Amino acid sequence: xxxxxxxxxxxxxxxxxxxxxxxxxxxxxxxxxxxxxxxxxxxxxxxxxxxxxxxxxxxxxxxxxxxxxxxxxxxxxxxxxxxxxxxxxxxxxxxxxxxxxxxxxxxxxxxxxxxxxxxxxxxxxxxxxxxxxxxxxxxxxxxxxxxxxxxxxxxxxxxxxxxxxxxxxxxxxxxxxxxxxxxxxxxxxxxxxxxxxxxxxxxxxxxxxxxxxxxxxxxxxxxxxxxxxxxxxxxxxxxxxxxxxxxxxxxxxxxxxxxxxxxxxxxxxxxxxxxxxxxxxxxxxxxxxxxxxxxxxxxxxxxxxxxxxxxxxxxxxxxxxxxxxxxxxxxxxxxxxxxxxxxxxxxxxxxxxxxxxxxxxxxxxxxxxxxxxxxxxxxxxxxxxxxxxxxxxxxxxxxxxxxxxxxxxxxxxxxxxxxxxxxxxxxxxxxxxxxxxxxxxxxxxxxxxxxxxxxxxxxxxxxxxxxxxxxxxxxxxxxxxxxxxxxxxxxxxxxxxxxxxxxxxxxxxxxxxxxxx
Amino acid sequence: xxxxxxxxxxxxxxxxxxxxxxxxxxxxxxxxxxxxxxxxxxxxxxxxxxxxxxxxxxxxxxxxxxxxxxxxxxxxxxxxxxxxxxxxxxxxxxxxxxxxxxxxxxxxxxxxxxxxxxxxxxxxxxxxxxxxxxxxxxxxxxxxxxxxxxxxxxxxxxxxxxxxxxxxxxxxxxxxxxxxxxxxxxxxxxxxxxxxxxxxxxxxxxxxxxxxxxxxxxxxxxxxxxxxxxxxxxxxxxxxxxxxxxxxxxxxxxxxxxxxxxxxxxxxxxxxxxxxxxxxxxxxxxxxxxxxxxxxxxxxxxxxxxxxxxxxxxxxxxxxxxxxxxxxxxxxxxxxxxxxxxxxxxxxxxxxxxxxxxxxxxxxxxxxxxxxxxxxxxxxxxxxxxxxxxxxxxxxxxxxxxxxxxxxxxxxxxxxxxxxxxxxxxxxxxxxxxxxxxxxxxxxxxxxxxxxxxxxxxxxxxxxxxxxxxxxxxxxxxxxxxxxxxxxxxxxxxxxxxxxxxxxxxxxxxxxxxxxx
Lengths: 517, 517
Known about the structure:
The structure is a homodimer of 517-residue chains.
Chain A: E1 11-13, E2 16-18, E3 24-29, E4 34-41, H1 45-63, H2 67-83, H3 86-96, H4 100-123, E5 130-132, E6 145-151, E7 155-158, H5 172-179, E8 184-187, H6 193-209, E9 217-220, H7 226-233, E10 239-243, H8 246-258, E11 265-268, E12 274-277, H9 279-298, E13 310-314, H10 317-331, E14 336-337, H11 341-355, E15 361-364, E16 373-374, E17 377-382, H12 383-388, E18 400-406, H13 409-418, E19 422-428, H14 434-447, E20 448-453, E21 492-498
Parallel strand pairs in A: 7-8, 7-10, 8-9, 10-11, 12-13, 12-19, 13-18, 17-18, 19-20
Antiparallel strand pairs in A: 1-2, 3-4, 5-6, 6-21, 14-16, 15-17
């Protein structure tokens, strides 16, 4: 490992490596059960303040760059991440317990995401430029109006534990915010601080190479809740991106709402991603759906926001067969290493609670473990018991799923109506299931961000038509997506220029500039 | 007045006239100082619940209508409003003290706004349809993804006191929400309940004529804060539109944020709309700017959200002359009748407070009045005093303005940076002022929703490039506008359909349907 790749334990503020002055901490290797050097240090209030002030100072010059300049910058970040080479993958493997192939794929996704936003910038229509020509003859005369979207201001991005690359320091929120011309102050997730430092330094390098103000990017390190709260409270911060627990997201929403100037929070929090086994598909393909579900459920040890934690089917022999097939397929799988001891302990607690609920039958009991290893779990209940419960719809983060035996499509619909907001819903359906699917669809549209037919919810394409979002509490703000080009809209607001002379008009708004629709 | 135009004092719930069971109240004629028959009645919790449940039940069938059907519906509302004829204008004049020409203009604006959204629906691109074709050869294969925007759900609309038509029962928020396929539960402003009832009945008639579910529109009547709070708390309500005081807007934001499922609030609250007199323009056109400003300030007795309550100029003889010209022009004007006794009393209180502040000089003292009549007021201070104060930037709703004598453009910039978010800012500038304007522009873009050159902020065009919005506290959510076609985005969220067969795909998303971009 060359010296540039040696992890220092520093935060990055205004282009400089800075050591936090507060509590130290280390990464933890969940597979080996050991701490990993070096020590990291929690930044203090004044250091957080410096990063936010630098971001504020960088905002005007950064947003004054052209689309082309910011596109080049995003691609430079991607190139710097790739230039970290295997050191990044090795460190991320150690800090997360995730396998090499998954992390290499996630790196590709992260770099691809930066490229996607670069392409979006070069194309230009993200600015939503609108022009209403003057109507001087009208009574009263209409002045010329020109609208464009501009960045909201500096964005606080909280790295997620379950995607050390694609939803962390250079993840979707960072890419979207930078594309929008918003500086980013990222908080490294304490479960993967080394990965975060490497990626953060890649961004710092790209900032310098592109001649941008150093405040365009800052990386804060730390443990405890105070740092995140200070970051969200800072007057320079104008929006927040977060992926994590419901408790964490709700806490940040409350802090943001209580500011003298409330700001938007985009928190992705909690989703059980119902899968509907419609009758004909279940009869025809139950075995293959069971295999697909088992694979989707254990992908990444069930640590995806889109994990299928709820499966609804109609009572009968096909559902019986399906249930046993799922339990059998999952029972044959080896355990997986979860991301952190805390997540592993929460999983054990969650499955134990679910097993103890009225009307819940344990079909596959996970082997208890005092390490970070987790075994899949399968539970079963009835539609009536599910409808009567206030807790069976709570997310258990990990490879656990609850199969619900419904009396009929009406009961499926009643359960759908009772569900909170979700990231996804999946319809397993064949041609004969069209009528049932049509009955469910309006309720599903109201409840979820993405509806899949004959697939599995894990696996979120980075594309222009993707919605990775959904009504509360799947996210704090169902009006947006965290994945795909539409994510740039999270960090934009419209400004109208009335009766401006060409000389004063921002370049992007002048006639003949690409991006006008 | 024909019997259909007789005002009954009823609320409208699920297509039926319903009498509230709680406190009664009457409209008040601020010009005559008398109450106006008939009595209205405050609805109770159960009635509010019925209106919200009816809206929820109507949501799926309403949003399943085609763009063309909803376009026809919006135009039918406009036709029904026009069919009310002079009875509407006469009642609105009596309830608001606003003159006939203004209200006829506002009616035209209201009907025009409905027509604008009808045109937007017929054009179709509001749905932001995105298609990513399947890539079956890719490893792993990419499924087909299709995105469209759908309505958020039932919207609560609070009528504004200062626009009994264009920002009330059938105002911008209602038009945008209905266009988006969202049912509306409107709360009539208690200052103009008769106007609200007439317009509400026009909408109810259009709902019936278009064969739509009756729950698409409800009108609640009442006084006191409990009704509005219950409406915002109701689980069926998915977004809130409000125009009014900062105190009122902040209260609704807190209620919405404290719900088990928080919802977006679009509150337009407080703005003093700074006007910058740049040196060359002030020297060349001070007299004419003073006349324009006086007209803008007293338009509608200063009761516009975009009223120019702050004017910044550089110290010197031109500013002296300008100040006296403004005071003289305003001193020559007759008083105007304010909307309500409460608003008139607040204005008197506001100008008295401003007059008593350190460093504030009264240039035109308004004649005190114990009726709803208000005289214009002009105050003057220095940039240093303004910067040192925490209260001089507070809105005084009415025809009052504060002239600020600045040392230089740096001080203008410092004041801009200290201002809270605003709906508008205006630059009075000539060719030689370009450099000063360029210095101010980045800060103005961060602070306001609409920047005008050489105009006056009152007068908000209903057009595609309009932004009537701005950072907090101008509005609760600076990411949107309440005027113009972009307002539809307030009430939309994206849904992605993955791997759907044509047969299940919503009609709008199928290949070859207009609106695909």
